[in-house]
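#struct-pred

JT: dropping the chains for the assembly here, can someone run the whole complex?
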Amino acid sequence: MTLDDRLQNVAVIGAAGKMGSGIALLLAQEMTLQKLQPGNRDKNFDLVLIDVSDTALKGLLQYLKTQAVKLAEKNIVNLRNLYQERNDLVENAEFIDQFVDDVFLNLRTGTDLGLARDAQMVFEAIVENVDVKESVLKKLNGQCSDTTFYFTNTSSIPIQLIDEKVGLQGRIIGYHFYNPPAVQKLVELISPENINPELQEVALELGKRLRKTLIPANDIAGFIGNGHFMRDGLHALKEVGKLNKEFSLTEAIYILNRVSQDFLIRPMGIFQLIDYVGIDVFQLILKTMNPYFTDEDLHSDLIDQMVEKKVLGGQNPDGSQKNGFLQYEKSRPTGVFDPVSAQYQLFDSGDWQKKLDKKIGDLPEGYMPWRQFLMDPQKDEKLSAYFKKLKGSKSMGTQLALVYQKRSKAIGNQLVSQGVANKPEDVNGVLLNGFYHLYGPINDYI
Amino acid sequence: MMHLSKPVYITAGYHTIFLGSGRKEFHPKKPRPGLDHYIIEAGKGTLAQIKGPEHIDEGVISNFMAARFNRQGNLAAFFPAIDPSLKYKPFTRVEGACGSGGLGVYTAMKSVLSGLSDAVLTIGVEIQNSVKAVYGADFLAGAGYYSGERKAGHAHFFPDKFSERAGACFKKYGQEPIRSAMARWYEQAIKNARKNPKAQEFHNKTDDLYQMGMTPPNPKYFVENLNVFDCSKVTDGASALIVASEEGLKKLGVSKKEAIEVVGYGISVDDLTQTPPDLTKLTTTQKAVEKAYHSSGLKPEDIGFMEVHDCFTITGLLSLEAACIVKQGEAARFVSEHRTAMDGELPVNATGGLIGFGHPTGGTGVRQAADIWQQLTGKAGDCQLKITSQKPFGLMINMGGNDKTVASFIFKPAVA
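RK: done, full complex below.
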């Protein structure tokens, strides 16, 4: 069965979640474009979107509507060609409305897994818990055809383990989208040893269709993305512990967040990123990965405390950022959590931030904000010059940044030596495409 | 072509800020002032420069597509909202797509010449940021032959029409020199606009404007031969001025030093249902400018500076040829040699033109006339050109649609 055949019957489980909704959007768009191909107009295309709550599914439909309109607006040149023979469509607005209608004609939503029984491709994006995944996939496997392929969005659980627990015999692949799936180019592709070769082909072809950058990772817990992110975050948490001798916890969190964002020129500081992913999700991934790495302790007391206190980060249904290590207003940080008082210390209350920035020290010469670097045609040369200055500086900020970057590089190399990544370029590719870093961790800057 | 039976003057020009992407105060998702706000601000700005609004005899308002952009018709009835003294006076709305403003000045001029009025308040306005550009494209397509052309037309209807013209010029003269001159045109437009605090591109900080102007086109999302920098942007804005007779100026308490005189004009309109005879020429524009030269007795070499209708960079180049400033095919070199720069031999669009100042479609012609008034009365601020007594003539070209409805005027200071 070809990808085109399979694309006529697709299901997304956990479709109303933050990853599931993005995956649903990508598939809805691709299936609609397929349906509009001249030979396909009489075929049925069915995208089944399943989640546990009807309310969440209504939110999903609203999200899909908004996004489908945006997609149609952006692709209006192509849309006018696709609907060329439709004499009733004249204005751009009419083409856009028609496309959105056509997207919705392919959709069905519900809370019953039984809706997915005819699916030839099932995308699983439910909670990162192996027992829950096992139970859901078992139910699906019991009712779907034995030719159905499963794409799991797990970011940490070995695929082979899931396959064995469910008994899928090579019909499951790790297809790890990055958040938000509709925007991020990266998909980590994890093929377990016993994979059905046809599934691998379909997965590669689908990646092309969805215009994703597929990077293979080997089937070791955490894969490349979380393999780096978890250890990178744990490094920051460890440094916070060290700084806590001289600074309050709040101050230490602020310092590490600033060092990782500004001094290393990343799109977000490390604690903002942990908040973005969700502190509870971060904890869950650590728990999943830890048993597989006996010579490491992938665990943080501070993370456990935050989860205990129910300070979790993550996003509101409207996509705005919830408070975590940092407090946010309109998704911009406005303060830092104080784990002792369980209150946020706001940037604009008193002059603590100013004093701390003074202690951290000035940014090295050649600094530009991340976005500005991203657009710069001479990015690489300028980064090289920047890091030279950084190495030559003795301020607290640059020293912490230097240690931070060295650790990031060591993590990258570890992923290659452990066989998680096939080569350094794959590690760098994941950080560049999935985390929007300006440079890969394995570099010659430091 | 008729000579004017008596002198016609223009005075008291005013512009609102030309708002849209690029201006710091513009936020696409925040509420913005509406049509009435712009009309009232521009009207009051002009009336503040005269002795009293009661001396206004009538008014003309130029606008292209408020019916779709703002769901508003009956624009003439906004005049009394500018000042209570205008209540129950005669007002008219004029439409000729992006050439509406030029037709508005022409209409006001006819009223003065007929003797019906001595002072005509003339406003041009368009508020276009009410919808995203992808929807606005359909509204603007109304400047073409909608029932005959829209269905087969491109998503970005007008950019595509002028992309075809650019393509025809590439074919005829070679792509490199034309493409490069289009980027130079963009560069010049932005540089001039940076000196004009009311311009949409006033805040533009791009370092290498030429390189930006050379951005390769992306036909998948836009058109074949133009990039977005080749296009004037979506603008909200209004301009106003007064067209007056000699008696009118007296009643308004405006000295001739504060006024300019119409010395030539040409209105030329072609058949909307027909495609252009030659894509590398602005044939209708040329007719209008020829009439303006003829009625004024002036020649291209007499012109000191110009306001041309550069809705697209390629249109800017072709306007110079249509105005017989250069021969056909020579505009690219003329522009690339910076001869149209503010310090060049023939400054063009000193306040930024449609690409730099902004293009509130139906308002642009009034904007151009008000800008020439500012230049010739020494009120152009940082955009002020040196006006010589040998060439005290400013030429304006305002074009509607794909070279269909064109107004051209030549002005000089009211006192030598």
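JT: nice. Chain B has a mean pLDDT of 97. The radius of gyration of chain B is 20 Å.
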